[in-house]
Design brief:
Blueprint: E1 2-6, E2 9-16, E3 23-27, H1 31-38, H2 73-87, H3 94-104, E4 142-144, H4 147-156, H5 161-170, E5 177-178, H6 181-185, E6 191-192, H7 198-209, E7 217-219, H8 229-232, H9 234-240, H10 243-256, H11 268-282, E8 292-296, H12 301-313, E9 316-324, H13 331-335, E10 344-351, H14 364-378, H15 385-398, H16 411-421, E11 424-431, E12 434-441
Parallel strand pairs: 5-6, 7-8
Antiparallel strand pairs: 1-2, 1-4, 2-3, 8-10, 9-10, 11-12
């Protein structure tokens, strides 16, 4: 059974019975339903504060003081019972059971809106999902989910812990893991799993390896301040960690997280500096010619420059940008040709073989337009903005565009100006059935 809440009160009960098939989507709650939904009986659940040590609230706290505020009263009660039951289990089982609980805790929180099933989604009237990258609690209506059903699905479901273990076994696992770089390099364990500050971990590996040992590196750094991963992970960490470990991780996040976050006092320059430092720490470990693949997405030109530039200045050469497009072409991507970068990207680098010579007196406006013209001339037809940028930025990198922390020019603005001046041309066209504006050369 699920309960729909509005204005702090339970207003609708939805239920289904898998045994007899009976279901209802808009039952009014009884007095007993309301009493059960509103009572948590002082349940002891982790109370991780959604603020930093100096008292500043998380950027994404949205008025919630602690993790407790993100949970329905009955969810607090059910989770406290589960935590007590897990604590009574054998010590060898507890970590796995904590993982099972943690994997579903956001789905029983106050962050989940009422689902709206439709032909373009897979939602059902009972679906649960965290809709925003924020601790924003839906103001109009939200749906409380049944704890026991979600915990059962987190273990036995088609995306559950047990299915994951079976899948790993099917491909040769589970593999032995090591937390010691020297032992791992000596063959003690198939996987090296390190925790703690990334730069310290890389230094440990470098000391044990004594030279390059990485054949392929895959990194997924934060997208500036687009998603506050450290803050949002508090909801899970609160149920994974206890006491001092939880407080220590919160303080470490404020020191070590690579992010733009005003509460942490970090802006775009700090983000670029910290990202560069991490890739510099990895540089001695990467074999010559080895691909370094970095996933990234942001439509903001300054943020793209900060991320690419940080990695270039850390000693890597941008080879290409591969575009992982969405399932459907967005009309916005075609109809707003300036800065409408959509989809996910793989930035492919290799270690630089030596310092690059950069001409100090480049007219970057003219150079950017000339390189864009060359990209479009080599294309087999007009390109959407995303494809133009993905082909243009590696050429800009080869010309030294990312050698400085601040972009010499705003690429979006230069291209827009060039289209207005007639150096580049926008034509109407179609991509995947969507009509919009595409870029081409003036012939």
């Amino acid at each position: 059974a699920c309960v729909i809440w509005a204005q702090g009160e339970p207003v609708v009960v939805r239920y289904r019975c898998d045994a007899c098939g009976r279901r209802a989507l808009d039952e009014s709650p009884t007095d007993r339903d309301r009493a059960l939904a509103l009572a948590d009986r002082g349940a002891p659940v982790p109370d991780w504060p959604l603020s930093y040590a100096d008292g500043l609230p998380y950027v994404e706290s949205q008025g919630a003081a602690s993790v407790r505020d993100l949970l329905w009263p009955r969810a607090r009660l059910g989770l406290s019972w589960l935590l007590a039951a897990i604590a009574a289990e054998d010590a060898a089982l507890r970590p796995a059971l904590r993982q099972v609980l943690t994997a579903m805790v956001h789905l029983v929180s106050r962050l989940c809106p009422v689902p709206k099933p439709g032909p373009t989604n897979h939602a059902t009237p009972f679906s649960s999902f965290w809709a925003q990258h924020s601790f924003n609690r839906p103001a109009s209506a939200a749906m409380e989910q049944p704890i026991w059903a979600k915990f059962h699905a987190s273990y036995f479901g088609h995306q559950g812990w047990r299915k994951a273990q079976l899948d790993v076994t099917a491909v040769g696992g589970p593999w032995t893991r090591s937390a010691n770089p020297a032992g791992w390099l000596a063959g003690q364990g198939a996987l090296l799993a390190l925790s703690g500050p990334a730069r310290a971990s890389l230094a440990d590996v470098a000391a044990a390896a004594g030279g390059p040992c990485i054949d392929l590196m895959f990194a997924d750094p934060p997208y500036g301040g687009t998603i506050q991963y450290g803050e949002l992970s508090s909801l899970w960490n609160a149920f994974l960690l206890d006491g001092p470990a939880a407080a220590g991780l919160r303080d470490q996040m404020a020191r070590e997280e690579v992010v733009c976050n005003r509460a942490q006092g970090k802006d775009l320059r700090d983000f670029a500096k910290d990202l560069q430092a991490h890739f510099e720490a990895a540089r001695p470990l990467v074999r010559p010619g080895a691909p370094v693949i970095v996933t990234f997405h942001s439509p903001k030109g300054a943020l793209r420059h900060a991320a690419i530039g940080a990695i270039v200045r850390a000693g890597y050469h941008l080879v290409e940008i591969q575009h992982n497009a969405g399932a459907r072409m967005s009309a916005k991507a075609c109809q707003q040709p300036f800065g409408s970068v959509e989809g996910d990207f793989w930035l492919v680098f290799t270690p630089d073989v030596g310092p690059r010579q950069v001409t100090a007196d480049i007219d970057w406006t003219c150079r950017t337009v000339a390189l864009a013209q060359a990209v479009l001339a080599a294309a087999h037809g007009p390109l959407p903005y995303t494809e133009l940028i993905n082909r243009l930025e590696p050429r800009l990198a080869a010309n030294g565009f990312f050698a400085t922390a601040t972009a010499p020019v705003g690429v979006d603005g230069v291209l827009k100006q060039a289209s207005t001046a007639g150096a580049l041309k926008l034509v109407e066209g179609q991509v995947a059935g969507v009509t919009g504006w595409l870029w081409t050369v003036v012939r």
